[in-house]
Amino acid sequence: TAGTITGTTNIDPLPSWNEGPLKTNILNFVTESIDSSGENFITVEDRVAVFDNDGTLWSEQPVYFQFFFAMDQVRGMAATHPAWSKTEPYKSVINHDLKSLMAQGEKGLMKILGTSHSGMTSTEFENMVTKWIDTAVHPLEKKKYKDLVFLPMIELIRFLQDHDYTVYIVSGGETAFMRPWVTEAYGIPRDRVIGSNLKLEFQWQGDEPVLMRLPAVEFNDDGVGKPMSIDRIIGRKPVAAFGNSDGDLPMLQWTASNPKYKSLMMIVHHTDSTREFAYDRESKIGRLDKALDWAKEHQWYLMDMQKDWKVVYKP
Amino acid sequence: TAGTITGTTNIDPLPSWNEGPLKTNILNFVTESIDSSGENFITVEDRVAVFDNDGTLWSEQPVYFQFFFAMDQVRGMAATHPAWSKTEPYKSVINHDLKSLMAQGEKGLMKILGTSHSGMTSTEFENMVTKWIDTAVHPLEKKKYKDLVFLPMIELIRFLQDHDYTVYIVSGGETAFMRPWVTEAYGIPRDRVIGSNLKLEFQWQGDEPVLMRLPAVEFNDDGVGKPMSIDRIIGRKPVAAFGNSDGDLPMLQWTASNPKYKSLMMIVHHTDSTREFAYDRESKIGRLDKALDWAKEHQWYLMDMQKDWKVVYKP
Ligand SMILES: [Ca+2]
Ligand SMILES: [Ca+2]
């Protein structure tokens, strides 16, 4: 493995990152971790890196993209549900009135999520997501959602994988929503996606067993849920963790407590209102407040989108 | 990959299996699956095989070995809990009176499981299991539990892995109980172990984050739970599934419904009272009744331990 980095030293593995201490630190961390003669060597099986998704690998404003998916599904179903044009919260969704929908609080949002995410089989849902991600466009950015992924982070994933890191997504979003497209978007295989889950029911449709998606959350993979799912599914403490909000703090703390290795904790700080969005402590979506204090106190790395990223989105 | 099998045709990959139609069928399935010019070719990423653990990869009589572990832990704790010598269900455990314990029904068993499995951190539990598996001995077989693994199945796992199959354990036993020893015992890595789970709680012990194990089941990975966890964690329908009881039937049915590939469903039939144990339809542990009928009706393969296995345990 030591040969790998030697062979690539002349090619910048992170071309979308501006030169500076942050980039140098990432390069040094990985270089040291594969040097079997150094004190910071990490065995291949322990090279586990975890990435949050929303706000870390792609944008998440003005609402999580999975919620745009939910609203698009409801609008697609509206023709066969004529009563919705007069019934909230569907009416606001059909009228593209996000403000009015938000004003209805969590109950309205849950109804939209339930209607769009349950009552179909896991296979049917996968097909819905695949169709949506291939065609749907973000209302503000006017780009496909799958093009609103952060190129610097994709380079970082690839750089880690090229040095025998096993890279997982550990997200509050639903596993079944991410799985259909993350391989193409990020180069992360289907079985390395950990997220929230709905309850399922094993049913027969004629001779065919199916998993029916029920309108109930089985596991919420956010906050303290993240170290739990890491322990349950990966079974190793990561050596590197990347997030962007308070919901990632326990995952970052868990990684920082790795007893065997020096670990790498990094937070995407959304500082770029021109190229993306600027938000942190006061944001409803992707609030970065406690984790920002903690990061500063513990010398974790803040990726300042404006300063550190030469490019934001894939061109 | 086609070269792999050519290079090994002279060496029997399944030496502990008797010659016969069953062994031939296994060899043919794998050989065809890696032949990219044939109609039964399976792409590498779809080569997913799932194995039940108790009764499929190691023995499970007279009770699941995880329950022997539980009783051993309780006995180890007895010195610091003097009242237990007069209190059921602990008294029966301390006296090695399995019959009296069983007579107390599920409530007694749950108490023993709760006492032995919760109230410690995930790391502490891992250490308990590691210590136990390295030393504990089966009361009837007079061998270490880790030596009561089925050599023919280990050869089969290795054979599949050698042909780029990704092999998972999908067991009703607890993930955290299997993970510490399955790599040494079966050659299956830690992150390919799917099982039942206890609820966890993220806590701080001083500066150290820990996951505390709570006395409550979060997910029961048995019966219909198996296709659910396969869908949630693997995200692909298997092409091969191996089990031994009615609790594996939904997993086998799920695998049989693979829409893209010819799949392989096999059941270990415990027919050998001399070398192991003989049981099926009437057994409390590992009951094989509905799945036996279903297997016969659907021409799934029954591995007849007495006839098909030249060797049972690792020598
Ligand atoms: Ca996030
Ligand atoms: Ca079993």
From TrEMBL, chains A, B:
<protein>
    <recommendedName>
        <fullName>phosphoserine phosphatase</fullName>
        <ecNumber>3.1.3.3</ecNumber>
    </recommendedName>
</protein>
<dbReference type="GO" id="GO:0005737">
    <property type="term" value="C:cytoplasm"/>
</dbReference>
<keyword id="KW-0028">Amino-acid biosynthesis</keyword>
<dbReference type="InterPro" id="IPR050582">
    <property type="entry name" value="HAD-like_SerB"/>
</dbReference>
<dbReference type="GO" id="GO:0036424">
    <property type="term" value="F:L-phosphoserine phosphatase activity"/>
</dbReference>
<keyword id="KW-0378">Hydrolase</keyword>
<comment type="pathway">
    <text>Amino-acid biosynthesis; L-serine biosynthesis; L-serine from 3-phospho-D-glycerate: step 3/3.</text>
</comment>
<keyword id="KW-0460">Magnesium</keyword>
<dbReference type="GO" id="GO:0006564">
    <property type="term" value="P:L-serine biosynthetic process"/>
</dbReference>
<keyword id="KW-0479">Metal-binding</keyword>
<dbReference type="GO" id="GO:0000287">
    <property type="term" value="F:magnesium ion binding"/>
</dbReference>
<dbReference type="InterPro" id="IPR036412">
    <property type="entry name" value="HAD-like_sf"/>
</dbReference>
<feature type="compositionally biased region" description="Polar residues">
    <location>
        <begin position="1"/>
        <end position="11"/>
    </location>
</feature>
<dbReference type="InterPro" id="IPR023214">
    <property type="entry name" value="HAD_sf"/>
</dbReference>
<dbReference type="Pfam" id="PF12710">
    <property type="entry name" value="HAD"/>
</dbReference>
<keyword id="KW-0718">Serine biosynthesis</keyword>
